[in-house]
Amino acid sequence: MARVLITQPVYAEATAELRAQGHEVVERNGPPMSAEGLAEAAAGFHAVLTVLTDQVSEGVFAANPQLSVVANIAAGVDNIDRAAAAAHGVTVTNTPDSLTDATADLTMALLLAVARRVPEGDRQVRDGRFSGWTLQQEPMGTDVTGARLGIIGFGKIGRAVARRAQHGFGMSIATLARDGREPQAQGLEVSTVGLDELLADCDVISLHCPLTTETRHLIDAHALARMPAHALLLNTGRGPLVDERALAEALRDGIIAGAGLDVYEHEPDVDPLLLQQRERVVLLPHVGSATERTRRDICAVAARNAAEALAGKTPPDLVAAG
Ligand code: GLV
To answer: 198: which residues sit within 8 A by CB, 6+ positions away?
Structure first.
């Protein structure tokens, strides 16, 4: 039977599933793994369950010819060099379904928090600065209901956000026209436009596309300048989709009105200028999938993917075949 390394402690069901198949499981308990650290730690293991902060690059595969499966406990796989995995015959899997709703819920939480300035109101009350209801009181918010939402990345999470936004808040939805293909609208009313139009015409832009060389800094100073001054930017995808310093400057200079972020370009560091922006800016610590049920689920799903691949079957969430 195989030896399986898990780079962080997981919920018990996940290890139980692998042990039930007769595999030896070793759970590591340490900081995120650099490529060098993982290359060393993976010695003698046939499968590795990784998290999104582990760097799974070519060196990991080159140093470990016995390795046949990398099961990422995440939807995104930008931490894995997939071309190198393919070249070394390593199967890669992810956890694309279980975290869809939790991440879409959190996106809506950010949208409402930024538009209605929820943290600012909370701070006002706690600081004893709430001096009673008045007609023009602060913090004054902007309307979510009926606003136009531009969704970049119309996959599972993007569509789940669109459903909540359209069915719950009557928002109109725009997404990018990709290669002339219609988005899978699944009963939603969605218009497809080019990037420039999406940026210029939407009140809120929300990012749900994978991080690739093409999407890195998709939202840069130029893109921010295209957005209307009242626009809000949401990012629950990956930090490097946004040029974080350019966003901080745009918020400081009133180029756009606000942002709700769950992810950062250099996690766990956050640009100091961004941290200084307190009005209509809500910053969360990468918790899109952080509900107990979802985190349990993604661990179990990754374990199942690894077990299936080790058994020579096609894993349910195959990203790249070995
Ligand atoms: C979280 O960011 C994930 O990709 O699962």
So the answer is: 150, 152, 174, 175, 176, 205
